[in-house]
Amino acid sequence: MSATIALLSDFGTEDPYVAQMKGVILQASPSSRIIDLSHSLQPFALEQAGFFLKASHPHFPANTVFMAVVDPGVGGERKIICLRKHGKFFLAPDNGLLSFILDEPGPERIYCVNPGAYHKEQEIRPTFHGRDVFAPAAADLARTLSPKFLGSEISGDEIIRLSFSPTRIGSDKIECAALHIDRFGNIILNLPIEPWRSEFASRPFLSLQEPCARPLRLVRTYSDLEPGLAEEVGVLAGSQGFMELALNMKSAAALLEIRPGQQLTISCKTEP
Known about the structure:
It is a single chain. This protein has helices at 17-28, 46-56, 99-103, 129-144, 193-202, 252-256, and strands at residues 5-9, 34-38, 65-69, 80-85, 88-93, 108-112, 153-154, 167-169, 173-181, 187-192, 205-210, 214-218, 233-237, 242-246, 263-269. By secondary structure, the chain is an alpha+beta fold. Strands 2-1-3-5-4-6-7 form a seven-stranded mixed β-sheet. Helix 1 (17-28) runs parallel beside helix 4 (129-144).
């Protein structure tokens, strides 16, 4: 059997785009197992896409091919790259989407995909590289487990990297961002569990400053908060490896009117 292919995109499911990509993959690699990581990303949300990959790849087997198509520069001058890291393949546009993975420790090799190597008998539509370039490349990777056929190897200095890190403001404020809002309304922040859980524990007087003022309480899990109590917003170490803002059985995102990608400012002090 060919390797597993995990698909990630901002295409949604209302249009035939995802199904067309799967059809191309199955023509070239019929035995591949295709898994939908998600197709409900916010359009063009590179940070959210990068978070989905970072949080998910440790749970997949070796040689999984992650095909991430969030590609606002489709058909333009941007490159398409394949990153070989952690024993897996990450196929994505060169727009910073892979920055979270690139920042992780470990050896890596990067290849620049040659779009002309695929579907030579069929025109490559400049507005749909997901189907006409990414899908056949992912299928070939799943069959051969070799990125060398994709194109030439390049150095990490030749690709785009974005910073998805929080920013300190003075000694007691952090400007961070909402990486994702899950279906329960939990706000997943770009604050890795460590060191931020330890820092918040050592500075327990926490509050949200922007986009609204609200006291926060460091908790272990959702049930440590009073059910439905809107005044009590919790900060906790979430299952996806990042700190979250949450309520118990209510949407923190709806209460605080926060959307994916929005900037937040959190204050953490040792005394009131």
